[in-house]
From TrEMBL:
UniProt keyword Protein biosynthesis present: yes
Domain Translation initiation factor 3 C-terminal: 83-164
Alphabetically ordered keywords of this record: Initiation factor, Protein biosynthesis
Organism from which the protein derives: candidate division CPR1 bacterium GW2011_GWC1_49_13
InterPro entries membership: T_IF-3_C_sf, T_IF-3_N_sf, Translation_initiation_fac_3, Translation_initiation_fac_3_C, Translation_initiation_fac_3_N
Protein name as annotated: Translation initiation factor IF-3
A Pfam family hit: IF3_C
Any one GO CC term of the record: cytosol
Amino acid sequence: MAITQASYRLNQQIRSPQVRVIGEEGEQLGVMETTQALKLAGEKGLDLVEVAPNAQPPVVRVLDFKKWLFQREKEEKKQPKTTLKEFRIRPNIGGKDLEVRVERAEGFLKDGHKVKLTVLFRGRERAHPELGLEKIKLVEDQLKGVGKPEKEPKSIGRGYEVTFIPVK
């Protein structure tokens, strides 16, 4: 989620008559009139940014908005993006088909993604849930060293699901 200038109220856009002000270094300057806070920020050549609009009174910070926005975006880019990849199989899946899915899951785990494996039962397959658990165990054994289950397989409506996380 990209942070934009439209996400925050700046300077004259702040409508509340009173605000709680936080200074440049993070120190509390107390509750004051918005006009007084604007004047304080203007004297320092900085912006008044509303960071907690739902608080009573709203919380604002005195800072260089462009610089702060740049720092926030930089920190956001540093954080690793993990996504959840999902594979659905049936309990009677063929050996080669399962092997292909395991190879794909291995690649995703090596890239740092989580992989969710769902075993779906249809019709008479529901009478043999142990077959689904066997398939999950088989996949778990093949992914040893690359990924491990986050939790035990969980029973969902029409089958089982388990999420694998990358091994560091």
